[in-house]
Amino acid sequence: xxxxxxxxxxxxxxxxSRQDNILKRLxxxxxxxxxxSKMIQTPDADLDISNIIRAQEPTALSTSALDLNSVLxxxxxxxxxxxxxxxxxxxPLSLLVxxxxxxxxxxxxxxxHVHSAxxxxxxxxxxxxxxxxKNQPRHEYQLGFTLIWKNVPKTQMKFSVxxxxxxxxxxxxxxxxxxxxxxxxxxxxxxxxxxxVDTAMFQLKEGSNKEKAAVFCSMNxxxxxxxxxxxxxxxxxxxxxxxxxxxxxxxxxVPIPANVQKWLRACENLAPFSTAxxxxx
Length: 281
Description:
Structural class: alpha/beta
Oligomer: single chain
Shape: elongated
Mean pLDDT: 79
Low-confidence stretches: 1-7, 36-65
Order of helices and strands: HHEEHEHEHEEEHHHHHH
Distance between the termini: 76 Å
Helix content: 40-55%
């Protein structure tokens, strides 16, 4: 039938191929414009030190990773970019640990910037995402992770620079990032995880020695029953409490119980923790 003969016409196939290439270039251009828009509308990124790395390929554990579109919304052709402002005088170690864990699950485009008002950022913080490597086009990444060293009273995060208010506080940001791993917990464990995160950020980080001792006592009891704070699986509670303990330089004048010491060693045996720990040296 004549109307179907055109389907095998070489000129028609060439036209379709050209159209596909044009669409692909348009998507790449949209992703680039979105990136520039983020830089323009975020005055925090005055100095780009171009620490962009290629993330690891997703491992076998990626089966637990979420479809990012289902969590962060679908925006075809644009890179989903998480932007974090953090004070270099108090590096949010938990977020650096979670960044590395995200790289194990997704293809992450990682970038470090320095705000113009910040002076003398240590070299290890400038390279906290590793050495620069050859870049891929933005559209080939699943997630962007932009860290801006800036003088801020609290660590801040924005996912959509144009549409959302910032999430403030290391613990709250850690909760958001950890949700991207797709862990499933029952209501009891979710409550325990939230309680531990709040305990870390308020009682352990800001409390008196008596309050710190009470936290270590509770941790020691929980870790006597399971290898991690909430059951047999690493959760955001472990990441945040470990981060606060490191920021405090250990227990200070408060002795750290045996089970907590064992747990600290277990954390630091994992590469994301040990890598983050080097930033304090």
